[in-house]
Structure formats: structure tokens, C-alpha cells
Amino acid sequence: MEEIPHRAQLPRKRFSLRSSGERSIAHMDLDTFFVSVERLMDSRLNNRPILIGGTSDRGVVASCSYEARKFGVHSAMPMKMALEMCPEAVVIRGNSANYTKYSNLVTDVIKENVPAYEKSSIDEFYLDLTGMDRFFGCYQFASELRRQIMTETGLPISFGLSGNKTVSKVATGEAKPNNQMKIDFGSERPFLAPLSVRKIPMVGEKTYQTLRHLGVKRIHTVQDMPVEMMERVLGKHGRSIWEKARGVDTTPIIQYSERKSISTERTFDKDTIDVVKLESILMAMVENLAFQLRRGVKLTACITVKVRYSDFNTHTLQARIPYTAADHVLIPKAKELFKRLYDRRLLVRLIGVRMSHLVSGGHQMNLFEDNVEIQQLYQAMDKMRDKYGDRSVIRAAGMQARTIGRMTNPFNGDPPNLLANRRA
């Protein structure tokens, strides 16, 4: 691990990336992000074991401090179990609006200084620094950027730097807490070799158990295995995991854009003023879009409702919200926007909903208020929808919406507005 270099002036966007076979990819991760935000607002929490999540016995741990992790506590653990393991922990319900605010502050600093970056979740970023060594080195640039983020936001952040996303992400994990690490070109395999196979991105609990049954615990074992064996045991993901274990990853940086969105519209064959029908269709739209977010492991921070009247005048209203993919958060907000838009004196020709400012992140942003039963309910409904179709499980209030439009896969590329507008 290298020392942080002397502070230098960060170059602004006055350069172009060079064409080279060697990439420089940094992975930045805000350390125990939710906990760090809470400690910014209340210094009395410093150095104490912290649990953030649902505060009832049925709640779930969304995040925990390093002090709590020493007792074996981890995220997604039932709060009751966590408190049994660490009874002196301070339990905080959490405030997703505050976490969204600080995530955006960090994003603004990165956007100002880095030509190409990917926001992979609310607290993780990949930066493409290829070609920036022409100034004073990619590692020094990343170090200065890390220092600037800590100075301007007060949040601890770690990073790993290497030639690809996989090695950089693993390096960040090894550098934590609140540190940095560089893996030189050609040293990827020796760096990865002694680590647990759980460190490889894509290796979840099921894959890990499969590898354990083969006697595989360390990455060096995977490195020495024939790729054909990995494919035979793990199927289509076998080769990808084998390549990652050997430090090979050609995955590109997917440029982050807050304009990214999914949306749907419903145009009526006959204009209507039936508010019950309109709200039912609106609810069905939001419910389906929320399911698509969860299926794509995405969160939204902005919801927009659109109403077009019979005279073709179109009005939209949007609201910024804490990152979420939960029906019970999005539906009330959409209904609130619709009530502010709706003019009962005019017939409605079209209504639509759009969710934008998407980031990766799954459902964790709702663990502060959800209990285990709500999470299990979402998982059960989504599983049935995956198997039997998007409309196989719906709320009773949304049953008037016979169709809500056809969706292509919204998370396999462009264009951003991916729900077809269908007449009903």
C-alpha cells in the first residue's frame, strides 16, 4: 500500500483520453456510508457500535459500524439478532433523504473532476482515469480526488486503482477502512491469489458453497483450475469468474447520467374524467415500474407524473425523493402529484409516469422503515411476476388497468424511455 502523495492541483476537464491498451480504473467506496453520515450529524456516535435499520424486533440491519462488525453483525441481519450479538449498540432508524443528499454531494465532486465515471450504487463509483498519467500520475490524481471528497463532504472514502473494475473493487475492500491501494499492471494475479473466493465479484453465497464443496477456498485455486471445469460446475458464469480470479476484466465504464429513466404512458380510446379509473391505472403503472426497478437492481430518486387533456394541453409535475424502489413509497408520491395536476373540469386523454435519476442498489434504501415481512412480501411477489408475468400479482386498487404498456428490458442499454406508449 502506497502513502498518500503531497497535495497537488486537480486538473479540470482540459484533456482528452489517450488511446492505449492499458486502462487505469479506480473504484471508490464510501466507508460505512450510512453510519458516516449519522456521525457527521452527531459526533457523540463516534467510536460507538452503530446499527442502522428498522428499529422494531422485526426490522433489518441496513448498515452497521466497524465496531458492531467485531461482534459478528452484518447488513441484512434481523435487528433482533444483531442486538443479541451486540447489546450495547446504538440503534438508529436512518434517514434516506440525508443519505441521498450526501451521495449527490460526492457525485458532484467526481463529476467536476473526472471525464468518465460510473455510479454503481449510492456509495460506490468507478472512475476511468486512462490517459491521465500524462499530468502527474493516475494514483496521485485519485489520491487528490479522495482528499477533496473528504474535505468537502467530511465523509471517509477508500479507493483501489488497477487496470480493471474487478481488481480495483477488490483492492478497495482490502484498503478499507479509509485508505487506498494501487495494484500495478502485471501484479493482479499475485495480489488476488491468497484472498478468499468470496472476494470475487459475482461470487454470492450459493456460488461460494458450490466452490467450497469442490474444496476451493482461495482464489489461487481457481486460478490454477482449467476453465472447462469452472464452466462445467458453474455454467455460463464459470468462465467469467475464472477470468476475474486471474485479474482479467474488460468490462467498460458505463457513463453515469442522471437523465437515465424508465417510463410508461396510457392513451385512452375515449377521454375520461373517471378519477377512480385514472388513479387505478396510475397505481398499476407505478407498481409495475417499481417491479422493473427491483428486477434491474435499480433505485430511483425522481418521479414524474404526466397528464394530457382532451385539448392536448400536457402538464407534468415531478418530485425528488430519497432513493427507493418500493411500491409503498412511490405510489403515494405519484398519487400526490396526480392530485396536484388533475383538473376535474377537463377530460383526460393520457396519463404517464416516469422514474429517473436511476442508480444501482436494489432494495437496501428502504430497510430503515421496512420489516422482514415486507421484504419477504416483495420478494415473493417479484418471484411470481418473474415466473408468470408482470401482471400476475397486482394490487386490488389497480385492477382497472387491463394493460399498462409493453416494456423492453430497461437495463440492457439505450434508449432511456423504454416503455411503449399503447392505446387502451
From TrEMBL:
Its EC number is 2.7.7.7. The record marks 34 as: Substrate discrimination. It comes from Phaeocystidibacter luteus. Its cofactor is Mg(2+). Residues 405-424 are annotated as: Disordered. One of its GO terms (molecular function) is DNA-directed DNA polymerase activity. Monomer. Belongs to the DNA polymerase type-Y family. Poorly processive, error-prone DNA polymerase involved in untargeted mutagenesis. Copies undamaged DNA at stalled replication forks, which arise in vivo from mismatched or misaligned primer ends. These misaligned primers can be extended by PolIV. Exhibits no 3'-5' exonuclease (proofreading) activity. May be involved in translesional synthesis, in conjunction with the beta clamp from PolIII. GO terms for biological process: DNA repair; DNA-templated DNA replication; error-prone translesion synthesis; SOS response. It catalyses: DNA(n) + a 2'-deoxyribonucleoside 5'-triphosphate = DNA(n+1) + diphosphate. This is DNA polymerase IV. GO terms for cellular component: cytosol. Mg(2+) binds at residues 29, 123. The lineage of its organism: Bacteria, Pseudomonadati, Bacteroidota, Flavobacteriia, Flavobacteriales. The active site is at 124. It is found in: Cytoplasm. InterPro entries: DNA/RNA_pol_sf, DNA_pol_Y-fam_lit_finger_sf, DNA_pol_Y-fam_little_finger, DNA_polymerase-Y, DNApol_IV, Rev_trsase/Diguanyl_cyclase, UmuC. The gene is dinB. Keywords: Cytoplasm, DNA damage, DNA repair, DNA replication, DNA-binding, DNA-directed DNA polymerase, Magnesium, Metal-binding, Mutator protein, Nucleotidyltransferase, Transferase. Pfam families: IMS, IMS_C.
